[in-house]
Amino acid sequence: MHRILFTLVLLLAGCASGGGFAQKSTVQVQSMGMNSVILLANCSTIVCTSGFANEGEIWMTDIPIDELTQGNSPDGQIIHLQLLWTPVAGKTPLASTSTNLAIKHIIIADGEVGVYGGGGYCWPKGSPSSGMRLDIEEATIALQNRSSSRFIDLLTPATMTGELTSRPDAITARQIATAARRIAP
User: Fold this and answer.
1) Looking at residue 154, what DSSP letter applies?
2) What distance in Å separates the CA atoms of residue 2 and residue 101, rounded to the nearest whole number?
3) How far apart are CA 167 and CA 81, in angstroms?
4) Would you say 100 and 85 are in contact if contact means Cβ atoms under 8 Å apart?
């Protein structure tokens, strides 16, 4: 009887979490400049979806989804990670120049928008349909030309490192993507 009850509790817990990874992030962006500023990606929403011509996409934000869908742009960040290809043991060259992850990081501060872009290498687990986990190894990012003229860049050049886990949610991913295009076309 206890075994059946325990199995039922495990199954219900799996259904409640979507059956995939729980969302969490230890991702941080660290400036390689003299000030060595560190920005934590403490995002409350981390979702993944199938990508177009890639292995999957992850969208992260610390801005409440209802704010984004209403067209508001409060201070915060939106991060878009595209897994370009999945490494294969014994066939993938591991070099400091390897890149399988494209990054777009939008920061909104005092109404000004900074758009960072770059890439690097990550170790992926899971899939867009079950949830994805990425372990990012010192990807490099820098401020792009699409930033607003009064945005103060405290990061460039910078590295992004850490782990994140995402849950599959194509609807929320589209909502974040739409807001990102509106905020930083």
Assistant:
1) S
2) 45
3) 14
4) yes
151 and 112 Cβ atoms separated by less than 8 Å: yes
26 vs 73, residue with greater confidence? 26
Q: How far is CA 15 from CA 4, 9, 25, 75, 172, in A?
A: 17, 10, 22, 34, 19
Rounded to an integer, the average pLDDT of 42-52 is 93
Amino acid (one-letter) located at 15: C
Instruction: Please compute the mean of the pLDDT values over residues 103-119 and round it to a whole number.
Output: 96
pTM of the predicted model as reported, rounded to 2 decimal places:
0.84
Residues 6+ apart with CB under 8 A from 170: 49, 50
Q: Residue 29 in 3-state DSSP? A: strand
Half-sphere exposure of 56 (CA within 13 A, CB side): 23
On the CB side of 120, CA atoms within 13 Å amount to: 22
- Cβ atoms of residues 57 and 174 within 8 Å: no
From CA 165, how far away is CA 30, in angstroms rounded? 20
